[in-house]
Specification:
Helices cover about 70% and strands about 5% of the residues. With about 350 residues, it is mostly helical.
Length: about 350
């Protein structure tokens, strides 16, 4: 299980590669249109369009003493715009798929520990590697479908932002009713995305445990959580607070240490710049590693709820939770009671 702490490096590298690919393709798409050139005077006033090729060949782009032929923008092209939308959608989909892959792999590893009756002997030797293999072989379709749902919602949100930008930047101003409707739509789809991410995360846990398809797993996870809504709310808020305090403590400690270290370096003129970069980096790195703990808590919690509903501690249906958890809840298997 120690390797699970370092597993986020793999999704992080995949996301980094995806980001590089996204930026490279986007650069080609943005510059794929026909360039527009216009005459610009010394005051920066844009005048009539000009022929840049002719201006360069005649006098290095200078039309007269105070006017120069300069690049303004690229012509809008509906075909290129559709390609940009398609590219953005691909970015959303693949990014969410990488996140889903990491969550499902970790969920499978932690679930294999929880559902091992003998925690010392029944846990696989390499639980993360075994879960990674199972996920790639059996669950990629479910992960792709769950990621697709999130990507569609994110694309709609991006479309709303684009529409809002166009309306605000157009010749006419939005009315108060239009602004209100736009804000309501943004809020609704933001909430929908948050809810779907929460549901998908628990669905991936169910997929890792039972191996069922996405729809069945999402339904089972949703109703299981609804039957234990009070426990879900309390655990979710407490967990988020504790993990946030942990991330904040690490970031603060690294920031203070780097501040005093770089402050004593006499050859640095702006020592706050590296401190700022280190603080941001430490927060990002700590977030990646704390996500493992967050996934472990969610997986164990969902397995715990399943354990309570499926088992009663008898010899036929013993509890699979660890001894420490049974001690906290006051639960015992019948065999353990007889041994006592």
């Amino acid at each position: 299980m120690v390797f699970s702490l370092f597993f986020p490096i793999i999704p992080w590298l995949l996301q980094l590669i995806l980001f590089g690919w996204f930026v490279a393709v986007l650069a080609f798409l943005v510059t794929a249109g026909t360039p527009n050139y216009s005459a610009v005077d010394s005051n920066g006033t844009v005048k009539s369009p000009c022929d840049f090729t002719k201006a360069v060949s005649d006098n290095y782009g200078i039309l007269n003493n105070d006017t120069t032929c300069k690049f303004i923008n690229f012509n809008d092209n509906d075909h290129i715009f559709r390609m940009q939308v398609y590219h953005l959608f691909g970015w959303f989909w693949i990014m969410n798929f990488i996140i889903a892959l990491g969550q499902c792999v970790l969920a499978g590893a932690f679930a294999s520990y929880y559902w091992a009756y003998d925690k010392k002997n029944d846990v696989p030797t390499f639980p993360v590697a075994a879960s990674f293999y199972r996920t790639l072989r059996y669950h990629t379709g479910s992960l792709a479908f769950g990621s697709l749902i999130i990507a569609i919602v994110q694309l709609i949100r991006a479309g709303l932002e684009y529409l809002d930008h166009k309306l605000n930047g157009g010749p006419g101003q939005q009315g108060e009713i239009a602004k209100y409707i736009m804000k309501c739509l943004k809020c609704c789809f933001w909430c929908l995305e948050k809810f779907l991410k929460f549901l998908n995360k628990n669905a991936y846990i169910e997929i890792a445990v039972y191996g069922k398809n996405f729809c069945v797993s999402a339904k089972n996870a949703f109703f299981l959580l609804m039957r234990n809504i009070l426990r879900v709310v309390v655990l979710d808020k407490v967990t988020d607070f504790i993990l946030f305090i942990g991330q904040l403590s690490i970031t603060f400690g690294v920031g203070v240490g780097s501040f005093y270290w770089f402050k004593r370096q006499s050859n640095l003129n702006y020592y706050l710049a590296p401190v700022f970069i280190i603080v941001i980096g430490s927060y990002v790195i700590s977030s990646a590693f704390f996500s493992v703990y967050n996934m472990a808590i969610d997986t164990v919690f969902l397995c715990f709820l399943e354990d309570l509903e499926r088992n009663d501690g008898s010899e036929q249906k013993p509890y699979y939770m660890s001894k420490s958890l049974k001690k906290i809840l006051g639960k015992k298997n019948k065999k353990e009671s007889d041994d006592d």
